[in-house]
């Protein structure tokens, strides 16, 4: 039975990343049309088996033999101004979205988390939850929610974090996974340190897992692969401050494809999102999972529908279509590559330096259990695992590779060096807050005490991560062992361990 995932795409960046995700997901499912069925229905509803093919009008159309007809993304589009979603609904993906997007015609949230969280969120709560409810009613067995949003502006951060809180109230049994775009240090939104910090404090409370994708890391990824890939337009993604958002969004979408592949496709060792949360999150607030993906972006030259379809029948065609270095990597080379900075999507995390509380290795393609065991042994030799969970690797094997590749790996690590990112966020926030720069935009909506409390929440989580790392460096202690025993018992009782 499918366990469906409902996606909420909130604000400009959230909608842009999501569109790239849907476009690439469609290509993947087109390339593996024989696998159409329960798997794809985790993220798409098939509303009418006799409908029209999805017109990807600006590229070659999907092969008529691919049964991707009348699919509707299990998605709710939200923004507080209409330009981005209007462009999406005029674009090549328009037919996959059912129901209108939820828009407040106010011209956005003004790059202000507080306006999004305090004003627009509550004002739009009922209409958004109505749209969510319609999607949930279409599901046989809802697995959870995946939110794509940025934390630098006002809507993705404010309305997005408000919605996660609302979902926690309304659907307490469903997993809530947030994939937020964190602003880079040189972000062009001057208030982004406030927005990101205030939103992060809510993600601590309201999400089950957060997979930070930061713009600095996405840019680094794009730059390191730009010589070998050809970005294609995702329709309307504007580039500000010289950042190649279209290519960065492809990298973000690639990570999300890797994360969701085990629920979208069959495999000999499947991992659903609940298992990720169970295995990777030993303490509820310490749920920041850093992603490292190999390859770290999609080979867009091979992701046109025709190449995708050809990939099934003639791998030589794809090989000839101009390719990327990473495609040639063996499984062993992938394990080495996933530790390299160019593949980290959280620029503050180094999986080899910080203590790992747990790690998931989500393979796609032809990797075998033997490969995975070798990979786990290799990573254990390179990475520090917390003393009470030395075998804390969760392995997924999904047989379907990404377009244009024979295999890929998405490594998710609950790594203590995430405290560096949270501390840097706190520093950037404090630079403004100490002088109360731009503070009135926020204190118009909430008290200084609320803002201080949000800051303490984020600093508290950073401190917890740092403390675990320090204790581990000192060889752990009795208390750790108690915690570890409890965690191991819980994992064993669920039968979810994988160790070598
Ligand atoms: N990766 C990526 N980042 C983006 C994109 N568009 C904007 N950003 C970043 O997102 C932050 C701004 O957030 P937006 O998503 O534009 O804002 P919003 O959520 O629509 O909020 P408001 O416009 O204030 O209502 C900044 O940090 C930008 O650098 C995009 O397409 N991709
Ligand atoms: Mg906006």
Automatic annotation (TrEMBL):
Keywords: GTP-binding, Microtubule, Nucleotide-binding
Domain of life: Eukaryota
GO annotation, biological process: microtubule-based process
Domain named Tubulin/FtsZ 2-layer sandwich: residues: 269-427
Keyword Nucleotide-binding (UniProt): yes
Coiled coil: none
A single Gene Ontology CC term: microtubule
Location of the Tubulin/FtsZ GTPase domain: 65-267
GO MF, one example: GTP binding
InterPro entries according to UniProt: Epsilon_tubulin, Tub_FtsZ_C, Tubulin, Tubulin/FtsZ_2-layer-sand-dom, Tubulin/FtsZ_GTPase_sf, Tubulin_CS, Tubulin_FtsZ_GTPase
Nucleotide-binding in keyword set: yes
UniProt protein name: Tubulin/FtsZ GTPase domain-containing protein
Natural source organism: Pycnococcus provasolii
